[in-house]
Specification:
Elements: E1 4-8, H1 19-28, E2 33-36, H2 53-63, E3 68-74, H3 81-94, E4 99-103, H4 122-141, E5 144-148, E6 153-158, E7 171-174, H5 178-187, E8 190-193, H6 205-225, E9 234-238, H7 252-265, E10 269-273, H8 285-294
Parallel strand pairs: 1-2, 1-10, 2-3, 3-4, 4-7, 7-8, 8-9, 9-10
Antiparallel strand pairs: 5-6
Helix pairs in contact: 2-3, 3-4, 4-5, 5-6
Length: 300
Amino acid sequence: MSLRLSTVILPVDRWHEGARAKWQRAEELGFHAAYTYDHLSWRTFRDGPWFGALPTLTAAATATERLRLGTLVTSPNFRHPVTLAKELITLDDVSDGRITLGIGAGGNGFDATVLGQEAWTPRERADRFGEFVPLLDRLLTEDAVTHEGDFYSAVEARNIPGCVQRPRLPFAVAATGPRGLRLAARYGQAWVTTGDPKLFEEGTPEQSVAALRGQIERLGAACAEIGRDAAPLDKVLLMGFTPDRDRPLESVDAFVDFAGRHRDLGFTELVIHWPIPDSDFAADQGAFEKIATEALPQLH
């Protein structure tokens, strides 16, 4: 399976003051997909502009023609499967079937408490995720769904006509733990990781590669448990959270070296952050665009 290159565009710009141009430029540069984070606010960007993911993706769908679009990632922190399904079906329709849903269990950041609830424990997040994904799968594939669960309910929820993509839009499941990997194996068309967060501060690139190899092996074991071949499952690395940090974006050669090592592990898609000046995602725009257009041919 050949390696694809995608980008993630954080929703920090007004649509008519730079955001539209970024999404259109992503298509011009030939990226496979452009994603955005689905948060209500996020880390160091909390006190600055931050727009909603699904309206942003809807606008991006009308401003582009070929580029795949998606969340990286949506979580149950402030989403309900019934309302999310309706919005995703609409977004899939507006984009004419170009949407991928990145989905994860969520974390303990601002999203976890902004609605007034206590932050869920890791176990509670896993429990909710384990109910959220199967219910969302049903809502996107069945015309009418009734479900009464421990965390989420649906009473004759109607989702006609369903997705443009059949049987539904693809799920890219972000997971590293055993329960999440089983969800990725059963429901995912792709699997997403950022690496091992314990290695980000003091780990080495070699340790990171070993950790990612272990994650892919555990994903393979989860697939084998249900009789699924893990090979066709797309494996997506969201870059910027491994010990390499932003070094792969310094030059085409640096990126090719990083990409080659991770392609050899089995990754099929690498996602790089669109540069944001004066942030953790600062990078040279010229080098970024050169990587977008020149790096992959050197790997094929």
